Structures are given as structure tokens and as C-alpha cells.
Amino acid sequence: MLPLLVGTAVAAVTLFIIHFFGLRLRQTLEFPHLQFLSVLISRTRSVRKIYNYFLLFLRLLFIASALGAFIFYLVQGNRGQISTGVKATVLIDTSWSMQSSSSEKASTKLTLAAKDYKELQALQSPYDTGVSDNKNYDETLSNHLSLSSSAADLLEQEDMINRTSHTYIFSDFQRSVFTETNLKKLSRKRHYTLVSYVNENTSNLYVDSVWLDQPTLFPNSLANVFVQVAGSMLTEGISVKITASEDNSLLGTTQVLVEPGKKAIARFKIPLTVGAEKQIIFSVEDAATPFDNNFYVVLPKPTAVGIKIDEAISTRHPVIQAYATEPSFTITKGRAQEAKLWVYEIPSTGVGLSTVAAIKAWLDDGRSLVLLPNASAANSTIAFLDQLGLKGIREESNQIDAKALKEPDLSDAFFSQIFEKEVKNMRMPNVKPLLRWESAYHTILKFEDATPFLSTFRIGNGQVHLFASPLTSNSSFISHPLFVPVLYQLALTTSAAPIVLSHAPQNGTITIPIVPKDVANQQVALYNNGQTYIPDQKIFQNQLQMTLPKEISKPGFYTVTVAGKEVPSIALNIPRVESKLEGYTVGELKEILAEYGNKVNVLEADEKISLQKQLQMEGTSSSLWKYCLILCFMCLIGEAVILSTKKSGSSI
Q: Are residues 596 and 629 in the same domain?
């Protein structure tokens, strides 16, 4: 570059000397006769006129080129500093999506980012970065993986730690993480170079969610577990193999077809044992992007449902006999701390105030109550219901005979666990109603005239299930096929805490619904592979919220202890947004950040072309002022040539 500038300067000086001191070549022409002079004069005027116009054009071009060189130097000078600055801040996205394949599938995006970072260090002076300065950049960056942070934290981190005027951001810029609003929060006082590692040619298959179709797990039974599989950047349908395993033992395998933009559901039956939780790993077969193939689930210990009955109610009562035949239900009388459902037959002698207070306390504790009306005590029953807070319930007219029940609404979620297939033309029994009401929180069964037979009411934190007719041995409903399943479902849908199979941290926070009473004053700890982690904790609405430390980097099973005592373990998974690999293209990033002008430069990572070379090419492409300056010198050369060919002497 220096020889070119020196040669250009020498040539320019020479041209200025020739032009301003009139050192032109002169030639004398002898004419044999004056008659040729008129022809020569005419030709000379035409030629000089052309020369003058050409000179005018060259001089105007010289002025425009000189002005363009000045403008380009000022406008694009700052962009040239993006590649040649002395000191800069480098922020590298170490989220889980960067563990997916790069464009050539030879390595991960994070590995390519580590390689580019190393080249950037060789190009310029030391950088400020969150990465240690050592030789194994890939391993160092992988140690920055965390379940408690996301790529969006880069922008907040940039604003907090930046101490330079220029920032490099290495990321795949996922659409699910980086919103346009967040991208536009970049400071307008700094210069940025965004290096995009988005790969539009590699799809990703992952487990989107896992759930149970039952609210309670029973010992020595099969749990129906549903696994939902989704795909990212799929261009066509693909058959996916899904496996379930426990302690490296295969529990089941199946295949589903995943279509672009849709999700597929697989079903597994997992055997349950008494008094033991199960740690299950569901895996999808996806060799191209293996970082999120596993999904971790903890099935809690199966337990029997405790049912409390009064001392006065007979064990031969049809309702009690129905519950007693099922081993999954434990029937107790009197005080039952572990029971979740209380079956109470309203006595004919009325209900005492102490019993009303006990029932209200039971409901305030979030438990459920089944009320069985007494045919010989309609008035005392209505008075008791009014004391509980159930208003608008009255005695049905004695003139009303037995009425047919209406077929159940199978679209109701209550019956989805009872009937696996739709049942048509079900013969329903006739029942004589004792009570009547107009509205309830949820009506489960109705008569043919749309009046309710079984409804659920919300009182306090609990639920009250009320039948409109007594369920004695004389009732035709107790011999109907619906009787036992409805009673079982009432027990299974008690307001116990929901089963949480796994946790995917949201902003680094997870919530555990079941909280020991003394956890507020005790330290909670997590254990995994011999490591102990102490999260920040707080109690909110009877739930334990934990903010995971950044050191928790791997998904898997974590043992939870409260004051050194083990409680049920939890499963941590990679947040699902990390599996959605759709990212902004370079063109889209430039369009979003167009208002930043030359303060933002966007590059696409390329394994074939090093980042160092791309930056050098970018700097060269922005040096238009140099070409304008060369054009100025060419205009001077052209003018010198034209002036040297013009003849001197005559004023023509």
C-alpha cells in the first residue's frame, strides 16, 4: 500500500508541474501555400472545441471525485474502525442452542465461535470478554453453559460490563429468544459487529412436553405417560424413534411421524412399584442435533388415596363398599390427617356447630367433601348446606316422581378418564330427586330435564360434591355401571397438589408446588453427581420458588434436601426455547437494525472463510474514498495529455 501511495504522489507532483508551468511539446508545421491555411483553421477550431468540452468534463469529474473522496472518508471512516479498533468487548452466546451443528456440520456453533474468537484475538489487541484467555477455548466456553440463563442475557450483560466503544456479539440470534424490541435496545453510542451462526440447513427434533392422564399414581399399576415430540426447521415429515429408560434399562420404545409445524404424541405405560419414585429418561433419535435428545421426568411415589368417613356411617353403605373394594383407597374413621376426601352422610338429627366448623376447616385446607343427603331429613339438610355457604338449594316437590338421568357428556374432562371409547345409547337409571338447585361450579350429571343430579361447588379452598338424591341400597343409580367410576373419579380429582414431572427453568427460576411446613426457615440444597448447589429460595402462595445458581449447567435428576433431610427429587431440563433453532438471517438483522446506520455491522459466520478475512474484506469494501482519490489523479493525467496535444501560438 505504501509504494502505491508514494508512486501516486510522485505522479501527481509531475502532472502539476507540467500543467502549471506549461511544459508542453510544441511542433512547427510549414505550409507550401496559404490556400491550405483556411482548411487548417476550420479543422483546428473543431478539434479545439472538442478538447475544451472534454477538458470541462474532466475538471467537473475531478471536482466530483475529490468531493466524493472527502465525503466517503468521513462517512465510512467509522466503519473502518470496526475492524481495526485497538480494544473491543467480545460477548459470546453460550446458551444451549449454540451446541447445535454449525453450517458444515463438522462442529458445533459454539466451537466455531471459539475458533473465531481466537482469530479475532490474533487480529487485534486483547479484548474484554467473559471467557478466560487460554488455549482450549471450546472447553472454556462449554463450561459457561447454564440452565439459569439465556442468550437474551447477552444484551443486558453488554450494557452492564461494556467499557469500550466497540462490541462484538457472537450468537445464532434465535427468534424465540431475541425479539426485535430487545435487539433495538443496543446502545447508540457504541459500534457493534454481530456475527450470526444461524444454520438454516439442519433440523432439530426434541421432546416438547410430558404429562400424565391421571391425577394420582397408584401402587402396582401402570401409569399412562404421554410424550409430545416437536420439530424445528423441518421441511418434510419425518419418522422419529422415542425410547423410555430407567437406570439404563429400556422400558419401552415407539415411533411417531412429526410433520413440519406440528407436534406428535406418543404413549407409554410405565409400571409403578410401592413406595418408590421412578426417574425416567425419554429420548428421541436425532443424531444431527444431540444436545437436547433427552428429556428427564420423575414419577413420584405412588400412594393410596385416603378417604375419611364418619363414625355414624355404616360400612355396609353402598358408597363405602365401593371404595373399600379398591386397594388404591384407604378408608379411615375419625381423624385422618393424610385423607383428602371426606364422605359425609347428613344425619336426620341435624348437624352440630362443631361439625360445621370442622368441615369448614377441612375445606379451607384444600380438601374435598362428598355430601350424601338423607331422605328423611330434607329440612335439616338444607339448613346445614346454608350454614356451609351453599345458597339457593331447596327441597324438590313431593309431586315429582323418579326421573331418568341424562347420558353423561363425554367431552367433559371428568369423564375422559372413565371412558377410553365413546359409549352410545347408554341406558340411564331413574332416580327420585330430593334437592334442587339452579347453578354450580361444575355439574357432572343431569336429569333429562337438565336439572342437576351431581354438582361440584367451591367453598374456600376446597370442593363440595353434592348429590340431589340419597345413595341408599334402594337407589337404582348404585347398580348402574356409572356408579363406581363416578365415585372413584371424585376421589381422584380431589384438590391435592398437582403432579409436576419435570422443571424447565424460566429466567433461572423453578417452582415446587409441595412445600414442607418448616421449609421457610430451613436451607434447601440440590445434589447432582457429587456436587452441592445452594439456590436462592422464597415461599410464594404455599409454593417454593428457587432461583438456580449459574453453576447448574446440565439437565438431569437432582436430589432435594431440606435441612439435610431428603424430599422428593426433581428433574431439570433444557428450556424448550433453546430447541427452537429458527434464527434471524443476516439480511433480517440488517433490516431490524437499519436505523443504527454504520454503527452496526452484521456478518455471517463461515467455516470456509475465517472471521479475520471477512473483517478485512469488509474493511476493504468500505474504502471507496481511495477509489475516488485515484479517479482524481486519472482526471489530472487525462487533462495533461489533452493539453500536451494542443497547439500553441494561435488564438484560434
A: no
Residues of the chain with pLDDT under 50: 1, 77-86, 125-137, 620-621, 647-652
Instruction: Measure Cα distances from 139 to 135, 145, 370 in Å.
Output: 9, 10, 60
Angle at 402 between CA 398 and CA 406, to 5 degrees: 130
Residue 70, domain extent: 2-83+624-645
Q: Is 183 part of any domain?
A: yes
pLDDT of res. 82: 44
Quote the pLDDT of residue 185.
84
CA gap 566, 569 in Å, rounded: 8
Q: Are residues 628 and 602 in the same domain?
A: no
Q: How many CA atoms does the CB half-sphere of 11 hold within 13 Å? A: 15
Write the DSSP string, 42-109: HHHHHHHHHHHHHHHHHHHHHHHHHHHHHHHHHHHHHHHHHHH-S--EEEE--SGGGGSB-TTSSSBH
Which of 195, 185, 137 has its CA nearest to residue 160?
A: 185
Residues 332 and 479 in one domain: yes
Q: Check whether residue 50 and residue 176 sit in a common domain.
A: no
Strand pairing report for 442-446 and 452-459: antiparallel
Residue 144 grid cell: 459457561
Question: Distance between CA atoms of 439 and 455, rounded to whole angstroms?
Answer: 9
What pTM, to 2 d.p., does this model score? 0.71
Query: According to the model, what pLDDT value does residue 187 have?
Result: 83
